[in-house]
Amino acid sequence: MKKVFFFMIISMEVFAITPDKIIKNVEHNLQSNNSYSQITMTVTTARGERMMKMESWNRGHEKSFIKVLYPKQDRGITFLKIDTTMWQYVPKIEKMIKIPSSMMMQSWMGSDFTNDDMAKESSIVDDYDPVLSLEDAHKYTLTLHPKENAAVVWGRITIEVEKVHFIPLKAIYYDEDGIRQRILYYSNIKVFGSRHLPTVMTLVPINKKNNKTVVRMDKVDFDAPIDDERFTKNALIRYSQ
Amino acid sequence: MILLKMAFRELLIHKKRSVITVLLCAFSTALFIFVNALNDGSHKQLIRSSAETYPGYMQLTGRAFEDNPNYDNLIFDTPRIQNILKDQKWISAFSARFESYALYATDEQSIGGMFTAIEPESEAEVSRLKRSLVSGEYLSSKDTNALYLGVEFAKRLKVKVGDALSFISTGADYSFAADHLIVKGLFKTKLYEFDNSAAFVNKSYFDEVMHSTDSATHIIITPAEISQIDAVTQRLQKVVGGEIEVKNYKMILEDLVLAMKVDQIFSYITLAIFFVVIFFVVAIFAFLSVYARIRQIGVLRAIGTTPGQVMQLLLLEALILGIIGVGIGGAASAHATHYYEEHPISFGFWGDVEIEEYYKQYNMVAEVTIPTQYNPPKIAVEMLIMLMLNLASVLYPMIILRRFTPIEAMRHV
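Predict the joint structure of the above. Result:
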């Protein structure tokens, strides 16, 4: 009897999970107050492959700082994101540039990611209404529809989430006409303390045959101490060296 | 011969009637030819302005570039294509371009816009970019770090000739590209949106910073004979091969060409109404003239003139008046169309509205002068049409006349 009661409680708990809760769990799983990571990004096009190495410092969803380490000619390029605003410092021209909203859909560092992906100008929690469209034994499939008046770039997003640890598995991005534009695959899941994190993200644009961008997290340190000064515009130049 | 003499004598006897018929015919011929010439001239002018402002008469691009305008669908062997083009006698000029996008930054702000490489000397032969210079200087093939900027874009960036700014962009190999630029010149076309977002640099400099050597997004071509553009397009497609797509202005400016076709249809409808009105005016006038002569024709028939000879007489009269009227109208309109081709009619204002400002809000090429198109063969055909129309207008009176017997005709009051 006790077992049955326990099962019922668990079932109700599972049944009670809302699409909003699933999305929040996903975000919670992927983010922490402070994190430091070393990243390798490989951009593959029809004409070849290009690799970049970067360091990234993040504070929650709101703040992040990226420094390019490789290739040599791009070393020292830094990016700062605070909320939805992004700045870039380019040592070659010694200039700090604010990325305007009109450039948000432009490619980030020649990859298939856009500036908007980096700045997260549109947030999947704040700007989209999730609807649970499919559920099986292992995963939820959610469809995210833009909220009314939300300044978003995608017509809708469908995302598959692993049920136990709320790990994103795949996200498909559609334009306003409902045409698939790109697919983001999450893979190589690793455990970091209580978190289960996909350490490889592969972005495949639909309209660019043979193109893909693979982001691999070589090292991740959650809750690493990060100086507040890291997330200031002065840091763009100072930490560029 | 005797019928011809009779026809002339008849026309001279009724001078007033003959003069009115000739004037009517001359006026309608002149109006018909001039309106057509104005219509053709305005369409030609619009096509010329639209094509020459920037897109060009013909474009070569990578086969998949239109659907996916990215760096994987470029023309990767531009020198080979240019060598092929050099040998084509039906091409008068060509120039390579590399269209890209950049973020321009001044100390105050950063704005995204077009970042396009041109070959300055040859570009001047395929577009009006050089002629659109309003301050500073146009680019040269030796320039580095020199920017040729649209006036409206310069206003947004708050820069003028001599000012410095920087750009960041993605190179043709997807690498990161950035450099300093100095504004060398400002241009103003009649396309507001273009002036508001376009910027050009010398291609050899661009190739260096954007790693785009031997590559181009477009090769712009001016054919030797624009009227032969469809044939040139077909020939060129065979010569350059399947990996390259050849398009002419009818495809590039498809919407404009379609709008002009619709306009042409409305012009034809207007002309058709015009034809009907002219036809009935002349026909009624001819009918009244013939009707007034029924007794005279009855006498002619009574003294042995056959119905066929009467018909010939009336046709000869119509032909003589038609030739004189159409001749005068044709000559006058030919002179006028030739004159207004050289000295286009100016439409700077429409009431209180400045035409250029009016068009600007729709981002259309504003033409404040409209030339006519002087085309002698076409004028000759139009004169012939008017002559046939004049002859057709006497057919009905002739049919009516045939119903009368000589006795009935002579008794007709």
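Confidence is low (pLDDT under 50) at residues 1-14 of chain A.
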